[in-house]
Amino acid sequence: MSLADARAICPELATRPADLPSEKAALESLRRWASRYSPMIATEGIDGLVADITGVAHLFGGEEDLRADLDARLARADVNGVTAVAGTRGAAQALVRHGGGIVQDGKLAEGIGHLPVSALRIDHATADALARVGLPRIANLINLPRAPLSRRFGPGLVLRLDQALGVQPESVSAEPEPPHFGVRMTLPEAIGLQSDVMAGLARLLDRLCSKLALHHMGARRVQLELRRVDRATAKVEIGLARPMRDSTRIAALFAKGVDEVDAGFGIDCLRLSATLVEPMPPEQIGGGPTLKTDDALADLLSSVGNRLGFDRVLRMIPADSQIPERSFQLVPAIYSTAEPAGPRKVTRRPITVFSPEMVFDATGQRPGTPPARFRWRRMWFSTLRAQGPERITPEWWFDDPAWRSGMRDYWRVETQEGPRLWLFHTPQSPGWQVAGEFV
Amino acid sequence: MKTHFDLSPADPLTLIAARVHEAQGRGRRAFALFQAARTSGVLIWIMPTHIPELPFLDALPSGVNERLHLFRPTGETDLLWSVEEALRASAVGLVIAEPQQSLSLTAGRRLQLAAEAGQTRGLMLIRNEAGSNAAESRWLCESAPGAGRDSTLQRWSLIKNKKGTIGSWVLDWNGASSAFNMVSEARERYEQAPSPG
Fold this sequence. Notes:
The structure holds two protein chains of two kinds. In chain A, helix 4 (89-96) links the parallel strand 3 (84-85) and strand 4. Chain A is 31% helix and 28% strand. Chain A has helices spanning 3-9, 20-34, 63-76, 89-96, 108-113, 124-132, 138-142, 146-153, 155-165, 194-214, 247-260, 289-308; strands spanning 40-44, 48-52, 84-85, 101-102, 182-191, 217-228, 233-244, 267-279, 313-318, 328-332, 352-358, 360-363, 373-376, 379-392, 408-415, 420-425, 432-437. Chain B contains three helices and ten strands. In chain B, helix 2 packs parallel to helix 3 (105-118). Chains A and B meet through helix 12, strand 9, strand 11 and strand 14 of A and helix 1, strand 3, strand 4 and helix 2 of B. Strand 9 (313-318) of chain A pairs antiparallel with strand 4 (68-71) of chain B, so a sheet runs across the interface.
């Protein structure tokens, strides 16, 4: 049914667009939870889970009790689910799409015989054709000779039928768990010295880094949790300027954070986890001078960033705007790469810019020229010569409070005192302001 | 005696390597960019968060913008710490910093040791008379009014030098590259001109 038809029938229908990624994530987390019932569990389609419970059911007291337990837990978590248990994957799937239930061992044909043929994971055309020749249920198919069925409806139908009845094996292939980059160490005796914690950290880092190397990953953020004997937890987190798995260089960054930790009555558990990892392919060690420079710079950015904060370690990259203040951006250096600036502008630009500052006591001003004498930052300046104007209009699609005063006429003013200033005049609300200083 | 300092730089405007220098005056940022254009390697500019002036990307000398990193610490302690850390990093070519308080002798000496350890140059953009005695050289930088149109005259005076003489230069540097024109300045005669004939 289309949405328009549904709205025509029920005008107060509340609708929301399907959020497929988060549904997938929810199904994935449900899969992780459901692994309590079986080690082999996989997602099935967009809304199903299939688990291989061979040799597992007796741990929960039998198949009935397992299913009852699963239903109860799903109901408690407000998940509307249908469950079925059967001897084969095909039969279980057929059953769960038609109400759920349990098929006893050795009674597959009876258990799913009453279901329509469309439960067999076949396409609609085949199901329609089967219904038209008078074979609407699975029970009708079971006793038919396979060869004519296969010739008339294709091999897919026979394959699905055999899989449901257990003639053809079909296994559950569980997806591999994503690797977890965390290691921990529990100590028999509490420690309190900084050197002891650093020694423990070095051992943990060795293990973490070899795990990272195994998966070709590098850490971007590493967190150390120190659990004290009184169950309080201290956390030390560091960031890295680029993906890294070099234990000695990471350990050096922890020194300051560990120094500030209050050990209380002692620390008896250390847990180290890489909270943010990025792919990092293996690279040849002992590279050329470029690699060494990159390494040294990355170490510097890491150590400075961990103390000042990574939003204070910046790089300038060009941006696409005519407005001087927005023609470049300050971005964190560790999340960006250097970009060469575009071709040089023909018009000269000041080497430093700042947010505009008013000039005072402007005198000797003829219309259309900068003032002959003015005061700025408690200093008097007299204009020697001026170049301009260069008119810059605000970007109308971008509401910038600084540009509410309208367009600006920029002048390069050489002063008798030496400084060469970047003055602008706002014709729509008359006044002169200084926005920068030239070489 | 052989020292590991280059005692006689190629021209007087070159800063001695592995030392920390100071620049004061209104044109100190221009001087810093001039030195940045002449230095190879990574450039670090450390300025406190509350300083309104920012280098303008479009007008930086060629080759500077890709290498420039800005650190913006909040306090003076953090600033000095990051200067020292940057000076110790061997990848860095020039560290430019704008301390807001006068540098003590201890701080200046520590920075010199850091620059020696990392074989880097440091340039402190100080307020007038806020330098430290440990500085290798101190420059007074002012921009000068020029006679012609579109002039970019700079008057850079070396007012302190531990390993050489002081001096004053007027040069024409337009900020686009590391090239500059030395301007020979008219000077008053100390002795009487020989009478012709």
